[in-house]
Design brief:
59% helix, Lysozyme
């Protein structure tokens, strides 16, 4: 099937990565042509019409530049992907094969909306004297991002899938001596959709990469335990506990969960600090938004601050 072949090209090419970066090289036009052909042969008129109306330039821009923007250091630049992401989502939702990738993207639409809001409210930068180069807008302060995420998550009810599963996940986190409130990481990572899969291969409620999952004792074959809520939760809790042991701060641990331990460690060393606030403006753009988003989600769901979560030290666990 042409559509299947095109999707294989997309998924094999890579995208968002938790602790590494890869260039995306894919035949986007071929993907869209195959998707539209599949729709013509198999889907109803409404879906066909939606695919025919796809803005190809926006989809190509999104698929080719998603990683560049999210792994770059400019939060405001991420706003440029908003329209293209909204076009790409129904394309991924239109077929069973790509619905796990739609679940992954759906959990990340907030980043594009937030970046657009921050960009709209940012004061214009002063012109650069004696040059034709456009001025670079600095990243918004962390406090501004915190306030925005609090406003965005405040009206939202619990995700439907969370009501049954959160108590089970909390029990597992508690067994691993990790604050139970951190299970809400799954809302940010996957919207509590265990099918979610990133183009780079992160899977499940907690979006664990294959190597990370294996290091934490999960099996990927013949059944991928990252798709099973309980084993995935235990692995995520162990990983978070290790990150907190290493960095001594839940903000830093959450930042490392998103961007990779090496990224956080290099920035702490470069700026000779142990403070999250000191390195925050230099983290990848997604991570700059991820940390306050996680904070706001935990505050909204549990009424506690991320940095005030109770953590039992190694000595207490023995």
């Amino acid at each position: 099937m042409k559509f299947r072949s095109a999707i294989v090209i997309l998924l094999a090419s890579g995208g968002l990565v938790l602790s590494q970066t890869n260039e995306m090289t894919l035949d986007v036009s071929g993907l869209l042509d195959a998707a539209q052909q599949f729709a013509q042969d198999n889907l109803d008129d409404d879906v066909l019409q939606a695919l025919q109306n796809v803005d190809r330039d926006k989809v190509e821009d999104f698929l080719k530049h998603y990683q560049d923007y999210l792994q770059g250091d400019s939060v405001l630049d991420v706003a440029q992907l908003k329209d293209a992401a909204n076009v790409a989502l129904p394309l991924l939702e239109a077929h069973e094969e790509t619905q796990p990738y739609a679940a992954w993207l759906r959990a990340r639409l907030d980043y594009f909306d937030a970046a657009a809001e921050l960009k709209a409210s940012a004061p214009p930068p002063p012109p650069l004297p004696g040059t034709n180069r456009p001025p670079v807008q600095p990243n918004p302060p962390f406090q501004a991002e915190q306030e925005l995420w609090v406003k965005k998550v405040a009206p939202r009810p619990w995700p439907a899938a969370a009501r049954k599963i959160v108590p089970r996940l909390k029990a597992i986190f508690a067994e691993e001596r990790v604050p139970a409130e951190l299970v809400w990481l799954a809302e940010v990572e996957s919207g509590f959709d265990a099918r979610a899969r990133s183009p780079a291969g992160a899977v499940g409620l907690f979006q664990l990469m294959p190597a990370t999952a294996k290091n934490l004792g999960l099996s990927l074959w013949p059944f991928d335990q990252r798709k099973q809520p309980e084993p995935a939760a235990r692995a995520a809790a162990k990983y978070l506990r290790g990150l907190h042991d290493k960095f001594g701060s839940w903000r830093l641990a959450v930042a490392a969960y998103n961007s990779g331990e090496g990224t956080v460690q290099r920035l702490l060393k470069r700026y000779d600090t142990k403070s999250f606030s000191r390195i925050a403006p230099h983290l990848p753009a997604e991570t700059q938004m991820y940390v306050p988003r996680v904070e706001a989600t935990i505050q909204h769901r549990e009424g506690v601050d991320l940095e005030k979560l109770v953590f039992r030290s190694t000595a207490q666990r023995l």
